[in-house]
Structures are given as C-alpha cells and as structure tokens.
Amino acid sequence: MTNNQKLSDLAHAVQSSQERNSVVELVYNETTGQFEPSVKGAPVEGTIVTQMTKEGFA
Amino acid sequence: MMSPLRLKKEQEVLAERVPPNMYRFEGLNSFSPYLLIAAMTNSGKVYTLKIHLETFPENVPQVEVLNPIRDKKGKKLNEVSGQMHVLGSLHGHTLICHYSAASWTPQVSLYKIFIKCRLWFEMYEEHLKTGYNIDTFLKHQS
Fold this sequence. Notes:
Chain A is of the alpha+beta class.
C-alpha cells in the first residue's frame, strides 16, 4: 500500500467519523505516532480522538 | 501563565505519550515561554510546532508552524483562511487555527492541542495531494 493510498483512507475515515451514527472511530496510536481508523467498540491501541475531531477547528 | 502544578501535569502527560526527543519547553522562567514539539505525519514528514504559553491556559495559545507551509498552488499559507483553518502568520510562520476563543476552556491540554495540529498536518497533506481544502475534512467549530 503506497503512502498516497494510506492518506486517502485516513481522510475518508476522518470524514466518516464525524457523521452522525458513524461506526468509525479515529485513533491516535502513541506507539507508532500514527492515526488509524477503527470501528466503535473494537479494542484499540492508543487514544480515541473522534470527539476531538467532531468538536471541529476554528 | 501556567501554575507550577499545571506545568507538572502537562509535562507528565507529554512524557507518557510523546517521545522525549520530540519536544521541549523553552523560556519557562521568562515572559515568553513556549513548547517546541515535532509532529511526524503518517507519511513520515516532520513538522515543528511552537506553542506560545504566555497566557496559556487562560487563553487560546498561538500555534506557529516553523516549517514553510504552502498550499497546492505554491502560495504561502500566511493569511487568514477559514477553509484551511489558518489564523494568519506570526514572524512569517503559519498559525494553525485550532480552537476559537468561544470554544476554548482552560482545561484543554497541550497534548490535545498537539493532536489537533497533528491531524491538521495530515489533512494539509491530503490538500497537497487532492487540492481539497482542509475544511473538507475538518469541520468548523460551532
């Protein structure tokens, strides 16, 4: 998987995670330093940052 | 300015979650304290943030990107842009618009600011690749 494809998957995950009733969670893995999509309820390694994304940016 | 207790808590959180060689506090005993922290995106690019701490946590801290930041067309991102979540520039460096004053609370940690900026960089790289503005992916605070 090339870096370009990975980035697009992440962008889609970021968008999906912000939708109402979304089952996508955005996780920041402190060990790898990478953002990873996950499914709600699944065990994760890192911090779920979905709510932070939903809060929005200025 | 941060109280000693708040500083200690912030340092503890960062120590748990960020490699020690990726950040450092500077000028803590001066009128211009700041945090330098590196953010490496999933693609491996490294950006450096300077988070100004003069009035943190009472007010939203300014966050400078010390790397040159240009949009897909090559234009410097140094002007206010809602679409790119940019607040303008400071000393020629792009300022990321991470929190509005209306949404800010003193409980927001430096680590949370780092994560938001880290995400901004990911979507900035998506912008460079696709041309879509950052607010296509990162919505605005209500």
